[in-house]
Amino acid sequence: MEMLAFIQLVDALALVWLLGCWFAYTRFAKRKAKTTDCLASVLHRYRVDWMEHFLRREQRVADAALLANIERNVSFFASTTLLVLAGLVTALAAADKVQLTLELLPFTSPSTTQELELKFVILIGIFIYAFFTFTWSLRQFGFVSVLLGAAPQYSEDNEDVSKRYAKYTAKVLDQAGHSFNYGLRSYYFALASMAWFIDARLMVLSVSVVIFVLYIREFRSSSLSAMLSIDEDEKI
Length: 236
What we know:
Elements: H1 9-32, H2 39-56, H3 61-93, H4 95-103, H5 113-149, H6 159-193, H7 200-219, H8 222-235
Helix pairs in contact: 1-7, 2-6, 3-5, 4-5, 5-6, 6-7
């Protein structure tokens, strides 16, 4: 406790707000997705459809290319996260210089070198979590690649087997997509927490804005409306 005695109350509350909102929104989005149409639930249905159509196709090169394209996106974020981590570790080693720079800005709250170091450590922790989620997402997409390679050829005699295979392959694909989403969410909250270097109250506001943006994009976005409209058209 003595090691953290230098933390001001407003900074401690801001940190609790960041972690609390992050955890609470993750739980909220996961539960709401089970009862409400959102990007996660709609994409899950499309992933099942994708795998069912995949098993019926004789030529599966396009499916492999689509999966490889998704993996490249995840790989880009994983490698970028390493670069960000390298930059943050460098900044942590020069926290005293960063403090002098921030003191020159008229709109930043005064903070000690120890407080700055703590903020950098928290940012590093967030990006380490992001790196682990992106790499786990990559591994799961690799599992899907194996499942695609081992997929049986569809026939009316093994229709039940094919549906089961499509269902559970789509589930692995879905989990890989969720891991990628968690990594992206880490970036959003990391960007919000950067406002902490200016003022703790600004970070609280930034985190609130991020929560609002995430909710709109996942539950009220025009992309979601378009995908739901496709579902409705297919049912007609």
